[in-house]
Write a structure and sequence with these properties.
Growth Hormone, Chain: A, 20 helices
Length: 467
């Protein structure tokens, strides 16, 4: 939390937009739960379904892929509904927030009640078909509620609330990675008394169930507190173009306009392939360290090196000369890190250094694509002055590709390991060669991205003249 406050203070001093410090801090606190929850699920859900529920790997991959695909489709729909909303006495987005808080409060701990049920086993002897249906339904509900939360949170920041061009959430994102990791995973790892190569013990599974439920309840309480801080501490205000910001076009026509915009297309495709690369690599990090590198005992330290490096690197990357150049350099750092990690197994000091390098590259992915998105929106506004209110759709379609990439990486990884087993060759392939190939494709699209610093300044000048 102290790290979050320090990053928020940095943002406050870095930006010239005059907003109260308390407002920025409340918004920073409100941005913590989403990434904290998603990262905790990313690290834990696959282990939970395989080890505790003892579900087959094929069905685990099916649940992960369908839930991510559902989330990807739901996000643009949420964006379209939000863009069709009108201003009320408490704002344009906050009414959505009030409905969500009231509804989810009655059900249990805000939108985290699906997360609680996600770690709950209805019956020890339930059938395989019921188990798959149960976790698939709950995971899809959870992703839908979280899409609404994150979309509202981002929209409050990007346009209608502050008109900032630096993504406040991005500064807190590496922190929430650390917070999510430290809140759920160590509790489970401390109670995990078996590995993939040992027989299951009923007592161990019972302890794991308890650990998952306790951590879910703790995160639910934290989620609710952070949301209330955001709701009570941040007041929505009309922007300079808010009177014309209502979208008066059909959903399909709006999507066609976005797809036809060259800058947006290059940015989204580059983000998609880069996301697949990072999520496939980091998603198999635990298995790689366990079955290939032989560093199972040092896994927590390696993960901590990645997350701390990402947290420290975000402000450093922001102070570089140009987003496009810094993005290129930052993403490229992952390639030598993966090559060295594959080439030198069982070398803990080298792994610590390379994991720190990978964390710095991760920070570039977390920061620059989202900070470049407002530039694309501004360019679109300059080139299409008659099109108003498409900002939520820009963000939603970006999230669609981001989540689709996460689903593809999870599905490909789980299915590959299901058919080949947890063998060194398969894990090496999923850890380095395939992610590097995806990353190179993403770098090509980022190279074709036409908005450099000079173009960005010209866009800002044209936008000021339009207003």
């Amino acid at each position: 939390l102290l790290t979050s406050l320090s990053l928020s203070l940095f943002l406050c001093l870095h930006n010239k937009v005059r907003l109260p410090l308390s407002t920025k801090l409340c918004y920073a606190v409100g941005g913590v739960p989403y990434q904290m929850t998603n990262i905790a699920m990313g690290f834990s859900l696959q282990i939970f379904l395989l080890d505790v529920v003892q579900m087959e790997a094929f069905f685990v991959s099916l649940i992960l892929f369908i839930s991510h695909a559902w989330d990807a489709v739901a996000d643009p729909v949420v964006g379209y509904l939000v863009s069709r909303s009108s201003w009320t006495q408490i704002g344009r987005l906050l009414p959505w927030w009030v409905v969500r808080v009231c509804d989810m409060n009655g059900l249990c701990c805000q939108c985290h009640w699906p997360s609680i049920f996600l770690w709950f086993i209805p019956h020890n002897a339930m059938s395989s078909a019921f188990s798959v249906a149960w976790y698939l339904t709950i995971s899809c509900l959870f992703e839908t509620f979280m899409s609404t939360f994150y979309h509202l949170n981002h929209c409050l920041e990007t346009r209608w609330k502050t008109s900032l061009y630096v993504d406040c959430i991005v500064y807190c994102r590496p922190l929430t990675l650390s917070l999510g990791r430290s809140t759920k995973t160590p509790v489970i790892c401390d109670l995990r008394l078996f590995t993939y190569n040992l027989l299951y013990v009923y007592v161990c599974v019972s302890y794991q169930r308890t650990a998952f439920m306790i951590s879910a309840l703790v995160m639910s309480a934290l989620f609710f507190v952070c949301c209330m801080v955001l709701f009570l501490g941040v007041k929505e205000q009309r922007g300079p173009l808010s009177g014309q910001s209502h979208m008066h076009t059909t959903y399909l026509n709006a999507v066609k306009k976005l797809i036809g915009h060259v800058s947006y297309r290059c940015l989204v495709l580059g983000f998609l392939f880069s996301t697949v690369a990072f999520q496939m690599s980091l998603g198999n990090f635990t298995l790689f360290c366990t079955h290939v590198a032989g560093l199972r005992a040092q896994l927590q330290y390696l993960m901590l090196a990645i997350l701390v490096s990402a947290t420290i690197s975000v402000p450093m990357w922001q102070m570089t000369l140009g987003k496009k150049t810094a993005l290129f350099i930052g993403l490229s750092l992952l390639i030598p890190a993966l090559v060295v990690l594959v080439s030198m197994p069982d070398n803990f000091p080298v792994y610590m250094v390379m994991c720190s390098l990978a964390g710095s590259s991760l920070a570039a992915l977390l920061l620059f694509p989202w900070s470049m998105l407002p530039d694309v929106v501004d360019e679109f506004a300059v080139q299409n002055p008659s099109c108003k209110g498409l900002e939520p759709l820009f963000f939603s379609c970006s999230r669609f590709c981001n989540k689709l990439g996460g689903g593809l990486s999870a599905g490909i990884s789980t299915m590959t390991l299901h058919f080949t087993g947890y063998k060194a060759g398969a894990l090496n392939l999923l850890w380095a060669p395939i992610p590097i190939a995806f990353l190179l494709v993403g770098l090509v699209f980022f190279y074709l991205y036409p908005i450099n610093e000079a173009h960005r300044k010209q866009i800002q000048q044209d936008l000021r003249n339009t207003r």
